[in-house]
């Protein structure tokens, strides 16, 4: 058991993803709320055809989401409305969530009709609705053809936690301590980090 003078670890990187499944922004500091990092996955793209949240977990349908980057225009503050988000498209074009044509521009870039939705907005609609049902979004994920998985070579639907655009948890902590990476994963991690700079 650790006493108060022993360090269990240290944070070496802190990332927030304002729009689900897009690359995000590295932070020096942020508020942590009951919903995780303030502003994390505050927005998501919703497929207008299926009404499901766009997710990089279905790469055949959304192969380029990781080529988009989202960052708040100014840092969000607790108890204040969230500020706008700047979205950098794969070709370098910069959009903001305040643009009136944001849905059309994102749909054109993704070659699929989408609507940018905010978790906050969807919750407000539920409160205003006569139905007492909590608001829950759905997404899809692809299961590769690998032994040991619950499903193989198929796409399944899954519900996101109530009132959020998170897949399962509001915060993910990753560690390398005690779990050395194989050369294959070390190389992939290095390439990923170089691509983020």
Structural description of this entry:
This protein is α+β, with helices and mostly antiparallel strands and about 200 residues long. The protein has one domain. The protein has helices spanning about 100-110, 120-130, 185-195; strands at about 15, 25, 30-35, 35, 45, 70, 85-90, 95, 115-120, 140-145, 155-160. It has a 3-stranded antiparallel β-sheet with strand order 6-7-8, with no helix packed on it. Strands 1-2 form a two-stranded antiparallel ribbon.
Task: Please sum up the structure shown.
The protein is α+β, with helices and mostly antiparallel strands and 197 residues long. Helices cover 17% and strands 21% of the residues.
Give a topology summary.
Elements: E1 15-16, E2 25-26, E3 32-33, E4 36-37, E5 43-47, E6 69-72, E7 85-88, E8 94-96, H1 102-110, E9 114-118, H2 119-128, E10 138-143, E11 154-159, H3 183-196
Antiparallel strand pairs: 1-2, 3-4, 5-9, 6-7, 7-8, 10-11
Low-confidence blocks of residues: 122-133
Task: Kindly provide the radius of gyration, computed on alpha-carbon positions and rounded to a whole number of angstroms.
Answer: 18 Å
Name the helicity range.
10-25%
Order of strands side by side in the largest beta sheet? Answer: 6-7-8
Q: How many individual domains?
A: 1
Average residue-wise pLDDT: 82
- What overall form do the CA principal axes indicate? globular
**Total E-strand runs:** 11
């Amino acid at each position: 058991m650790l006493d108060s003078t022993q360090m269990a670890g240290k944070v070496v990187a802190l990332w927030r993803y304002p729009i689900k499944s897009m690359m995000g922004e590295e932070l020096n500091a942020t508020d942590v709320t009951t919903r995780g990092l303030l502003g994390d996955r505050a927005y998501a793209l919703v497929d207008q055809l299926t009404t499901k949240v766009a997710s990089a977990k279905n790469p055949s349908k959304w192969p380029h989401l990781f080529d988009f980057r989202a960052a708040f225009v100014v840092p969000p503050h607790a108890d204040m409305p969230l500020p706008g988000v700047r979205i950098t498209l794969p070709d370098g074009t910069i959009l903001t969530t305040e643009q009136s044509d944001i849905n059309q521009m994102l749909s054109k870039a993704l070659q699929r009709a989408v609507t940018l939705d905010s978790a906050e907005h969807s919750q407000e609609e539920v409160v205003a609705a006569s139905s007492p049902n909590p608001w829950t979004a759905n997404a899809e994920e692809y299961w590769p053809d690998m032994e040991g998985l619950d499903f193989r070579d198929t796409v399944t639907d899954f519900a996101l936690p109530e009132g959020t655009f998170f897949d399962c948890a509001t915060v993910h902590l990753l560690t390398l301590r005690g779990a050395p990476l194989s050369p294959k994963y070390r190389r992939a991690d290095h390439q990923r980090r170089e691509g983020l700079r």
